[in-house]
Amino acid sequence: MERELYFREATEKDVDHIVEMLADDVLGSQRERYEQPIPKSYLQAFKAIETDPNNELVVASDGDEVVGVQQITFTPYLTHQGGWRASIEGVRTSASVRGEGVGTKLIQWAIHRAKERGCHLIQLTTDKQRPDALRFYEKLGFKATHEGLKLKL
């Protein structure tokens, strides 16, 4: 059955369910803290995202149910002749809808939004422990053209 999704910016009331989705997998369960009440750090991060015009925390909703989330950050660069790029982070779908195309629609929405914002490039990373995610993004046209590095602080 095709889901009727709509996309909107997340509200503070969504944070609880967003954290639940972020924690609902093998890697997320090791780094997130889904508990009641939600740790204040999540609400503080939400406020920072909400007030930054170059950050959008977007949820996919099916009726009243939030079934997906992603954060898009828009960054100006001096490279590429002073172009803008979009970075996609924290993409998750609810376990109840995995495999039903919600993730594809989230990424397609992000691509459209990046074009609206005048971006010349979209970038994202996925953990090397997520080979299925890598195949998913490649199927949507993303290419592994760079090696990404991270330093935990």
Automatic annotation (TrEMBL):
<protein>
    <submittedName>
        <fullName>GNAT family acetyltransferase</fullName>
    </submittedName>
</protein>
<dbReference type="GO" id="GO:0016747">
    <property type="term" value="F:acyltransferase activity, transferring groups other than amino-acyl groups"/>
</dbReference>
<dbReference type="InterPro" id="IPR016181">
    <property type="entry name" value="Acyl_CoA_acyltransferase"/>
</dbReference>
<dbReference type="InterPro" id="IPR000182">
    <property type="entry name" value="GNAT_dom"/>
</dbReference>
<dbReference type="InterPro" id="IPR050832">
    <property type="entry name" value="Bact_Acetyltransf"/>
</dbReference>
<keyword id="KW-0012">Acyltransferase</keyword>
<dbReference type="Pfam" id="PF00583">
    <property type="entry name" value="Acetyltransf_1"/>
</dbReference>
<feature type="domain" description="N-acetyltransferase">
    <location>
        <begin position="5"/>
        <end position="153"/>
    </location>
</feature>
<keyword id="KW-0808">Transferase</keyword>
